[in-house]
């Protein structure tokens, strides 16, 4: 057996022990299990606080063996169990605090596994579970009835069978705060138009997977759509904050 063959057959964590890797080397380590992995995906996970590599004096990322295995764990759970990144982060934060949770929220096994159509359906149903009546939306958001009616008239919130979802609640809460600054729903119509354009972009990207009929594929498409949406929000925030920074210069 050649030395190169020996190296290739050495388990990843043992072979990498003590080494510091750049982002290209991390991609090489993970691409076998996660062919779609990219540098932007790793940077996105860093932005969400799921991994925190060290930096060189020049600002380049330095990944340890622990960082690589942490990324592998996150990617496997996201791929195989369709868990939201927030759920995974909450678990990892507990580990970082020295706690030893036995399972992820909802009683799921920590071992990544192929998700069944039934489980994917249950996860999707769980996300749709809570809805609010008009009165509940008004009470929980702190908005007036007139404000909620106005938000609906401008298409900023929508009801299904006269019930509103958690997203409508978030919109209403934000608009209550904006109203305090003199910003009314009529001023926010560009946000609706921008959201529709972003949705069109996301739908084009995930269409090949979303068109499949099995529930697991639809769940995977939804997770990809959420990831793209988060990246778009990060881009939007960076562009706006950049302009605000220029106001302060």
TrEMBL record:
The chain positions of domain HTH merR-type read 37-94
A GO molecular function assigned to this protein is:
DNA-binding transcription factor activity
- Coiled-coil ranges (or none): none
Q: Which PROSITE patterns match?
A: HTH_MERR_2
- Enumerate the Pfam families for this protein: MerR_1 (PF13411)
Keyword annotations from UniProtKB, A to Z: DNA-binding
Q: Which domain of life is it from?
A: Bacteria
Q: Which InterPro entries match?
A: DNA-bd_dom_put_sf, MerR-type_HTH_dom, MerR_fam
Recorded protein name is MerR family transcriptional regulator
């Amino acid at each position: 057996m050649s030395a190169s063959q020996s190296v290739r057959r050495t388990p990843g964590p043992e072979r990498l022990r003590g080494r510091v890797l750049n982002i290209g080397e991390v991609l090489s380590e993970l691409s076998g299990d996660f062919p779609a992995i990219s540098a932007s995906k790793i940077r996105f996970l860093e932005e969400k606080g799921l991994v925190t590599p060290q930096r060189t004096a020049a600002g380049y990322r330095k990944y340890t063996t622990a960082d690589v295995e942490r990324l592998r764990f996150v990617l496997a759970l996201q791929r195989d169990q369709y868990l939201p990144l927030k759920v995974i982060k909450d678990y990892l934060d507990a580990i970082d605090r020295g706690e030893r949770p036995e399972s992820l929220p909802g009683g799921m096994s920590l071992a990544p596994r192929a998700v069944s159509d039934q489980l994917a359906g249950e996860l999707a149903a769980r996300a749709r579970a809570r809805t609010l009546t008009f009165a509940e939306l008004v009470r929980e958001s702190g908005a007036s009835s007139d404000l909620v009616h106005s938000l609906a008239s401008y298409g900023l919130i929508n009801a299904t069978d006269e019930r509103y979802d958690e997203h409508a609640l978030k919109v209403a809460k934000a608009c209550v705060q904006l109203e305090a600054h003199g910003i009314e729903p009529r001023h926010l119509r560009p946000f609706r138009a921008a959201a529709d354009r972003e949705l069109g972009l996301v739908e084009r990207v995930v269409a090949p997977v979303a068109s499949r009929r099995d529930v697991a594929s639809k769940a995977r498409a939804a997770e990809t759509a959420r990831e793209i949406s988060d990246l778009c929000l990060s881009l939007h925030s960076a562009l706006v904050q950049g302009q605000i920074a220029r106001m302060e210069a």
